[in-house]
Write a structure and sequence with these properties.
Strand content: over 45%
Strand order of the largest sheet: 1-6-2-3-4-5
Number of strands: 16
Largest sheet: 6 strands, antiparallel
Order of helices and strands: EEEEEEEEEHEEEEEEE
Distance between the termini: 45 Å
Shape: globular
């Protein structure tokens, strides 16, 4: 299906230079005395490289259908991450570059949304918040409770976050995956 370059949105997959690319960012520009254009950052599915591309605002772009599935994190194999489709039990191995910052929130059986283009994983989305177990929480020092004092605690994934003094080792806490901050006890 062909769409105008003006209709490109982040997360879409398009055909570009005989390759399928995912749109990472789109900016519409209208310079003073020139015609409007669309500036986009695309990531090639084949090579994994990102590129800066400029389209005329009226240029036609061929879109590629995306499929999104609910997947569960299974285990880490070397540097790669292995996910399983809970319905078909199909395994999908994903590179650390594709997982990105989500690695700090992945524990066994954690649910994620995975987007595929032509049977190749292109995006891993984690929920807005996750529940993780505290593996190391130093004791708060007596008299430290003056004004909402926080301490650095380590979670089961190795992530270090700031949390209130009352959090102890072994407790489960809720963490915001967008900011990486403590939300509440779970």
């Amino acid at each position: 299906m062909a769409v105008n370059a003006n209709d490109l949105r982040k997360g879409m997959a398009i055909q570009y230079n005989n390759d399928v690319c995912v749109v990472l960012e789109v900016t519409h520009r209208t310079p003073g005395n020139l015609r409007a254009f669309v500036q986009g950052i695309l990531r090639s599915i084949r090579t994994g490289k990102s590129m800066d591309v400029r389209f005329s605002s009226t240029e036609k772009v061929e879109t590629v259908p995306l499929n999104t599935y609910k997947m569960e994190f299974s285990y880490k194999s070397g540097d790669d991450y292995v996910f399983v489709n809970p319905e078909s039990f199909e395994e999908v191995t994903v590179t650390p570059e594709l997982v990105g910052e989500a690695k700090h929130y992945l524990v066994e059986n954690a649910s994620v949304q995975m987007t595929f283009v032509e049977d190749k994983a292109v995006q891993v989305e984690i929920p807005a918040s996750v529940i993780l177990t505290v593996t190391d929480a130093p004791e708060g020092i007596r008299g430290d409770s003056a004004n909402n004092v926080q301490k650095a605690i380590t979670l089961e994934t190795g992530l270090v976050v700031q949390a209130p003094l009352f959090i102890k080792t072994g407790e489960k806490i809720k963490v915001d995956t967008r900011t990486g901050k403590y939300m509440e006890r779970a």
